[in-house]
Design brief:
single chain; about 210 residues; Rna Polymerase Sigma Factor, Chain: A; 2 domains
Length: about 210
């Protein structure tokens, strides 16, 4: 999901050297990933009142304005820094709408956005099901994917977040650890606990869990 690698580093060097085109390319290269992240995390109550594209635009504008500071002192990989800006913006949006409506919308997850990510849903479904229970029919597989999305919504915030990071943002364990301020072993254990809880909600055995 997050386009990280040599090209991003080259673009960051271009920005540092004063190339305005490099900044535009860097921002555009990450726009789709930010859009997907925002759509995943905007709860239903907020998404009915706020256009996700407006949130994305605000995040990319802030990134452009703060990019020089990041280049001077890069505390984490660029894509993790950018996703943190996006996450902070989403939290701010939720807080503002809670205040406006005087009610909490924290648990209203936009689970439909997970369901539209077919590859991620299929990959995670394959991890959660037992080999002998692998559905042969596509209709049965689709039903299981829908069950998984509903079960995901029943997890607490921390468990749900780490599963989303690993399976929908496709971040590795080391990236998750850095983003959450954890050691790699601690992030791995948190992920395993979250997967076990999800499997329990689905009524599957956890003997085949892998990180």
């Amino acid at each position: 999901m997050w386009p990280e690698g040599e090209q991003t580093q080259d673009l960051l060097k271009g920005v540092e050297n004063g190339d305005p085109a490099a900044m535009n390319q860097l921002i555009d290269r990450h726009r789709e990933a930010v859009r997907r992240m925002v759509q995943m995390r905007l709860d239903r109550a907020v998404s009915r009142r706020v256009d996700a594209s407006d949130v994305v635009q605000d995040v990319m504008l802030e990134a452009s304005q703060r990019l020089a500071d990041y280049i001077r002192s890069p505390s984490m990989p660029f894509h993790l820094w950018l996703r943190q800006l996006a996450k902070d913006r989403i939290i701010d949006m939720h807080r503002r709408h809670r205040a406006a409506k005087r009610r909490s919308v924290d648990r209203e997850q936009n689970v439909s956005s997970f369901a539209t990510d077919d590859q991620s849903a299929a990959d995670l479904t394959a991890l959660l099901r037992d080999a002998e229970l692998t559905p042969a029919a596509s209709a049965l597989r689709k039903e299981m994917e829908e069950r998984f999305v509903l079960a995901l919504d029943q997890l607490d915030e921390h468990d749900r977040e780490i599963i989303i990071m690993r399976h929908f943002e496709h971040l590795g364990n080391g990236e998750v650890a850095e983003a959450l301020g954890l050691s790699a072993p601690a992030a791995g254990m948190r992920y395993l606990r979250a997967i076990r809880k999800l499997r329990e909600l689905l009524g599957t055995d956890d003997s085949s869990i892998e990180t």
